[in-house]
């Protein structure tokens, strides 16, 4: 028997490959399915099932492509009504994979079709449970997403269902059961997940606030729904793609990895409504970029920030990447449903510059330089673009919070004619913020290199007292 957690850090997402006696099942696969197919081929195994724990909101699952390529059957629990062929498993139904048995546990709450899969060994002993977004390590799935899809639902109703699912289906199970969730810290599907990606159920019963033994349903609903903020706009669009289907990943890659000369790139930018997305790191971007580009670095929480900053998944995109990383960028965009990359700048920004095309730049300052500026000018404007929860936990005195998550609201606080120094936690999000506003005509924003971490470590800024955050949303 093999149980492998395939964890993707930038999405904070866990897919699973389980194999026994030449048969395999993949749970919640990512969009690019080749690694699962190659793994099964190497092991001389046949993928029998693709289990989906629910209709995901934060990524586009590879269930359709994987079933097509492998001949596997897609399985959902009760209440799922997708537009493609699948097996609708009943609550309590058992599915065999080699010598293993998976028992279907319908656990509505995060969504109405949410389902966990309880794994039993060849002797019938419960050994693991794949909980999707029903139970995380340290948290449970947020109950406010499905109401965006089914209008009759409310978050309190869903939280009530989740309370019942946890108490009646999960908590009675053995303490030594291993819990394998769909997400860890950094995902927007919960508000305070642990960085751990598996645990025993017994330890979760002892430490997870949502599994407190003496908790009433009313207390659960209040605690689970407190601190939630609006989910990213792309979440409902990803749900629809997971229900209705999508282009194959091979088509998306073929479309997105077309090499464009600087001239062809410029023509495409001028003649289409394509957005120019530069995925290099913030330092390289600041030194020079194609005018009107926005910067979201590939070496960070790339896909979730693309999803948060670009509201329409059908937006056409032109790419500027580090050389050799074009396919990686197109793949990571496709993971969250952005399938309409039109091509990339051949030779990267260097080729653009050598072709004599117009360039733009963004000024950056270090924490020490900013400290000197503030010492001379107490009225210097500083914007903190971290989440509100981070800001409330600890921030510079007399600094305004303008979260990147809600940039359209935040930009209303910015005067185009004034100079602002912009920081986040470490310098990743602030460059996204500055680049987007620059593309909208705000040319007086200066990025703070190293962000809050560098400013705190410098010891040259006055900070509020630290307060432990109750939510990471």
Automatic annotation (TrEMBL):
Swiss-Prot/TrEMBL keywords: Metal-binding
Pfam short name (any one): Lactamase_B
Chain ranges of the Rhodanese domain: 270-361, 376-460
Protein name, per record: MBL fold metallo-hydrolase
Origin: domain of life: Bacteria
Record's keyword annotation contains Nuclease: no
CDD domains (UniProt xref): POD-like_MBL-fold (cd07724), RHOD (cd00158)
Entry-linked Gene3D superfamilies: Rhodanese-like domain (3.40.250.10), Ribonuclease Z/Hydroxyacylglutathione hydrolase-like (3.60.15.10)
GO-annotated molecular function: metal ion binding; sulfur dioxygenase activity
GO biological process: glutathione metabolic process; hydrogen sulfide metabolic process
SMART domains on file: Lactamase_B (SM00849), RHOD (SM00450)
InterPro entries: Metallo-B-lactamas, Mito_Persulfide_Diox, POD-like_MBL-fold, Rhodanese-like_dom, Rhodanese-like_dom_sf, RibonucZ/Hydroxyglut_hydro
PROSITE patterns the record matches: RHODANESE_3
């Amino acid at each position: 028997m093999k149980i492998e957690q395939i964890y993707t850090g930038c999405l904070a997402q866990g897919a699973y490959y389980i194999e026994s006696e030449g048969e395999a099942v993949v749970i919640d696969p990512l969009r690019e399915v080749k690694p699962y197919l190659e793994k099964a081929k190497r092991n001389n195994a046949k993928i029998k099932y693709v289990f989906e724990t629910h209709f995901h909101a934060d990524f586009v699952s590879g269930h359709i492509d994987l079933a097509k390529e492998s001949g596997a059957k897609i399985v959902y629990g009760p209440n799922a009504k997708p537009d493609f062929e699948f097996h609708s498993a009943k609550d309590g139904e058992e599915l065999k994979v080699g010598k293993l048995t998976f028992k279907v546990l319908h656990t509505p709450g995060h969504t109405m079709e949410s389902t966990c899969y309880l794994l039993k060994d060849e002797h019938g002993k419960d050994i693991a449970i794949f909980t999707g977004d029903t139970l995380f390590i340290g948290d449970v799935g947020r109950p406010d997403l499905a109401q965006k899809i089914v209008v009759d639902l409310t978050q309190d109703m869903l939280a009530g269902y989740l309370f019942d699912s946890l108490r009646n289906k999960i908590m009675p199970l053995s303490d030594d059961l291993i819990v394998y969730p769909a997400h860890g810290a950094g995902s927007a599907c919960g508000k305070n997940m642990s960085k751990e990606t598996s645990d025993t159920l017994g330890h979760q019963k002892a430490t997870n606030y949502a599994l407190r033994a003496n908790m009433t349903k009313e207390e659960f609903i209040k605690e689970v729904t407190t601190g939630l903020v609006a989910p990213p706009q792309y979440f409902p669009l990803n749900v629809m793609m997971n229900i209705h289907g999508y282009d194959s990943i091979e088509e998306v890659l073929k479309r997105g990895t077309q090499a464009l000369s600087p001239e062809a790139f410029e023509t495409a930018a001028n003649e289409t409504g394509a957005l120019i997305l530069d995925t290099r790191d913030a330092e390289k971007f600041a030194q020079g970029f194609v005018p009107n580009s926005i910067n979201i670095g590939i070496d960070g929480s790339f896909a979730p920030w693309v999803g948060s900053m670009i509201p329409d998944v059908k937006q056409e995109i032109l790419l500027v990447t580090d050389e050799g990383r074009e396919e990686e960028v197109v793949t990571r965009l496709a993971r969250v449903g952005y399938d309409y990359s039109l091509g990339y700048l051949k030779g990267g920004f260097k080729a653009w510059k050598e072709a004599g095309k117009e360039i733009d730049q963004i000024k950056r300052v270090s924490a020490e330089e900013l400290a000197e500026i503030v010492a001379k000018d107490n009225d210097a404007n500083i914007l903190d673009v971290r989440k509100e929860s981070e800001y409330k936990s600890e921030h510079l005195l007399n600094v305004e919070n303008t979260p990147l998550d809600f940039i359209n609201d935040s930009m209303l606080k910015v005067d185009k004619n004034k100079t602002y120094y912009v920081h986040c936690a470490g310098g990743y999000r602030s460059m996204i913020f500055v680049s987007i506003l620059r593309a909208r005509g705000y040319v007086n924003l200066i990025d703070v290199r190293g962000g809050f971490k560098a400013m705190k470590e410098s010891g040259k800024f006055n900070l509020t007292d630290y307060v432990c955050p109750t939510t990471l949303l």
